[in-house]
Amino acid sequence: MRSYVYVGVSARTGGTISGLFRRAVDRDKWEHATGGMPDENHVHAITVHPDDPATVFAATSSGLYRSRDRAEHWTRLMEPAPGEQMWSVLVHPSNHRTMLTGTAPLGVYRSDDDGETWRRMPRPAIAERMVGAFPSRVMRMAIAPSRPDTIWAGMEVNGAMRSDDGGETWTDLSDELVRMSRQPHLASAILTKDTAEGMLDVHAICVSPAAPETAFLALRMGLFRGENGGSAWHDLGIGEHAAHLRYGRDVVVAPWDPMTMYACVADAARGKAGRLYRSEDMGRNWKQFDHSIDVHSTMMAVALPRHDRDQAHCVTRRGQAFSTMDGGESWRETNLPDGAGSAVAIACG
Q1: What is the helix (H) or strand (E) element at residue 198, kind and residue range?
Q2: pLDDT in tens, 293-312
Q3: SS in 3 state form for 127-153?
Q4: Could you give the domains of the chain?
């Protein structure tokens, strides 16, 4: 059965086309696959169902959508409240009937019946540390299969939090991130005057089944590991491996090996350079994975198939898409069509 790569784009900061593009893994042509979605719908996150690759979910500016035919047609599962947008979507790794979606302003919804009905969870009682150009948003959530009630969440721009009761209550994990920002090389203020901003600008979070009490963050100032339930954060020093490229945009655990991780790093949010790195020892050491490609903007996101360790796909903000089918030995570039907005999400299956 044919597999696809999906990319979500937004024309908020460039381009004229928002929505979702798809490409068959064995083809070069991208299709604008938004049947059933409104025009100018910004797609922020994409997830392929682990049991059924024909089922795809998209978290967007107009709600949460589901396709049952590999993005040919879409049905809205949930309409957001006024002023609300969906920014992340997760299928629970232990119980695939349970799903979560994160929002802006800060919030979480949960479904326990395959997305048919949804419950707004109590608003996380954590500090709103930054008031910038946009409200705090839940960019990514993660769950370790052996800890089914523990949900990790990364927020832009508000750090990280953890729930130990399925999303009913949340623990703020950002105090240590703020303390670390007092180090000059970890201080950054772009949206506000607070130099802790860079350490709270979280873009992705993941947790490995091999270390369910440890979370990993990709944020503006690099890649970080959170031990003791996220109470203590440590800089993974990606800048030492990637030279000047330390802006962390994505970090994921390989579905076929809990020790292997991939990370997207760049020079800036709207930069001119980016790379895909891989670690085979759970973040202790990193090596460049995307050899012999010419990247012209921020490397934004990476997608890995569940059962093929030789395949990987990544995308840059300006729509360069790269794929390898042989474990990184060779790469194929297939750029998104002219006019596509900023690429912010990628998935495959």
Answers
A1: helix 197-200
A2: 999 999 999 999 999 999 99
A3: CCCCCCCCCCEEEEEECCCCCCCCEEE
A4: 4-348 (2.130.10.10)
